[in-house]
């Protein structure tokens, strides 16, 4: 018996959601793992669900109003178990949740372009002082420990301490993040993978993608742990 297996035998892990016996060392029980709502039948451009009438890979909205980013991958819908886990990290600084969340994320990870760079959506310095960390940085560092990816943690800076997006509607969110980001150094990347742990209205990643493309980036792909699936996020 290996050391890890022996430790699990002596100190069995508990599910982070319901506290029952964890399944296969990932700190979730089998029942909670089955309840993870995988993103499926989604528009490859915006990540929202395709309607029963939409048979193309992109939704009707994106065909008429293409976002600045070239595609969006999210592993789960932001509800139920994923929402509980992400909220615990965001609001209670439960950093030990990160390995389980990243295991869940990379279980469905598409192929990564080896010539691309990953950058996290930045938080304002005041928000980092208040919270103590940037969740996107921590998630991306965990991903970089599992894959040989190139990350640039300092390319972008949030220059305005914007209002929290959760209190705003879609149009207010767009205005809230307008011109809220600047480059810390010249950007010579052709393909950028923008990581945001939760995408709701996509206003933030849309604004960053617009800014990056104006700086010369050819393609911006958005990667996220979770995505809201409410159609009202476009309203």
For this entry, give a set of tags.
single chain; 235 residues; alpha/beta; Rossmann fold; two-stranded antiparallel ribbon; globular
Helix content: 25-40%
Strand content: 5-15%
Largest sheet: 5 strands, parallel
CATH architectural designation: 3-Layer(aba) Sandwich
Low-confidence segments: 1-10
Based on DSSP secondary structure assignment, what is the total number of beta strands?
Answer: 7
CATH class: Alpha Beta
Topology order in helix (H) and strand (E) letters: HHHEHHEHHEHEEEHE
Structural class: alpha/beta
Mean pLDDT over the residues:
85
Radius of gyration: 18 Å
How many alpha or pi helices?
A: 9
Distance between the termini: 56 Å
Tell me the number of structural domains. 1
Shape: globular
CATH domain fold name? Rossmann fold
